[in-house]
Amino acid sequence: MKVEDSKFVKDFIKLTYDAWLKGWHERNGGNLSYRISEDEIKGVEEELDQNSEFISIGVSVPNLANEYFLVTGSGKYMRNVKLAPKANIGIVKIDGNGENYKKVWGLLNGANPTSEFPSHLMSHSVKKEITDGRNRVIYHAHATNLIALTFVLPLDSRVFTRELWEMATECPVIFPSGIGVVPWMVPGGTAIAKETSKLMREFDVVVWAHHGVFAAGETLDSAFGLMDTVEKSAEILVKVLSMGGKRQTITASDFRDLAGAFHVTLPEKFLYEK
Ligand code: 13P
Ligand code: ZN
């Protein structure tokens, strides 16, 4: 099968365009990676070029050895992926040590994977380990309202989680483990990759202060849906704060009732009295 005809590539492209329409991907902002399954890669094997050179990742991810990833290119625009997939996204293979990658499809004209590839791969590494391989997607968006909140709320996961849970009843059910927060750091490097992946042990959503958000998911739909839900509740919070703040809200005891009814565990550290 041609790479562009396979379902995982079509689903990946759908996300990039949906996300562009959301307004989260100005210029080349944001990036996406998908860990391809064995069956999926077998289906497109004939179109892969295994002869390219290995390039250093900059971080070590031994449990991703020999895995294939579909990833957006550095400097590429989400809105253009649908128009020219081969120029804007590509498939890369990790080497046997988890320290280098090679391009096997796409990323034409010397394009490279996103500059946030270290953050993606270190997060994939953690998520693969703790979900028995079920997590396949890491998605970075410049979600407007979440970024805005990082200028106003304390950069503390307890506050971000609780405030965003309060903005929509279903939020604690969609992201019961809460939201991690990374203080401002230089993007694109190993340090921010380490910090993000550390928080990915506990959370599926990690906010980068004054920059954007990383979300993890088992499917492209679930990662996008998670980003959409968290950003929607951030939008409500921005509106509430702009209207002078809350006059009433969902209480800690309401959240305990919700957890019981929906069979989710909500960590008590987010249910503090205010
Ligand atoms: P890339 O174009 O390298 O993916 O960078 C975009 C971005 O959002 C950096 O954080
Ligand atoms: Zn970014």
TrEMBL record:
This is Rhamnulose-1-phosphate aldolase. Its EC number is 4.1.2.19. The gene is rhaD. Zn(2+) binds at residues 140, 142, 211. GO terms for molecular function: rhamnulose-1-phosphate aldolase activity. It catalyses: L-rhamnulose 1-phosphate = (S)-lactaldehyde + dihydroxyacetone phosphate. Binds 1 zinc ion per subunit. It comes from Clostridium lapidicellarium. The lineage of its organism: Bacteria, Bacillati, Bacillota, Clostridia, Eubacteriales. Residues 10-238 form the Class II aldolase/adducin N-terminal domain.
